[in-house]
Amino acid sequence: MASPEKVKHLGVVAEVTEELVRVRIDSQASCGSCRARSACSLGEGGEKIIDVHNPEKGFSIGEEVEVMLNEKLGFRALFFGYILPFLIVVTALVILTTVTGDEAVGGLGSLLFLIPYYATLYFFRESLKKTFFFTINKPVNN
Fold it and tell me: Which of 3, 39, 101, 120 has its CA 20 to 30 A from that of 29?
């Protein structure tokens, strides 16, 4: 059985603790050839810090590493972060505009629907951290 596709980024270890390794990724450099860059928030430019929880031991500050995320999880994150909120706003806009007959009320009301959505995501952030997790490896030099 084939292993699931992984989205990989090269980075440098910035901090190491007992339960966490922080990796600094220059997304400009590492995203140029990645086929998932359009669906990945890392591709938005600049430097990103990725927290890898419960890593294997043996990483040191300044070491180059490879951070990976299962591609399916990346697309699930895309759905929760962008697609579902868009669908909520559009659905609420159509319903509120139809019911009230006022586009301004419909527009503002539909944006207010995002408050409980993002509050729910915030409330479940710990379980989401367990679902959306990064793994870390030392890169294989060819």
Answer: 3
Tens-digit pLDDT profile for residues 64-115:
888 887 778 778 888 998 999 999 999 999 999 999 999 999 999 999 999 9
CB 19 within 8 A of CB 42: no
Q: How many domains, the chain?
A: 1
Q: Quick check: is 1 in a domain? A: no
- Structural domain of 128: 6-137
The pLDDT assigned to 141 comes to: 64
- Take residue 20 and report the two structure tokens written for it: 């966490």
> What DSSP string runs through 49-71?
EEEEESPPS---TT-EEEEEEEH
- pTM for the complete prediction? 0.62
Distance CA 135, CA 44 (A): 21
Q: Is residue 142 part of a domain?
A: no
In a domain, 37, yes or no: yes
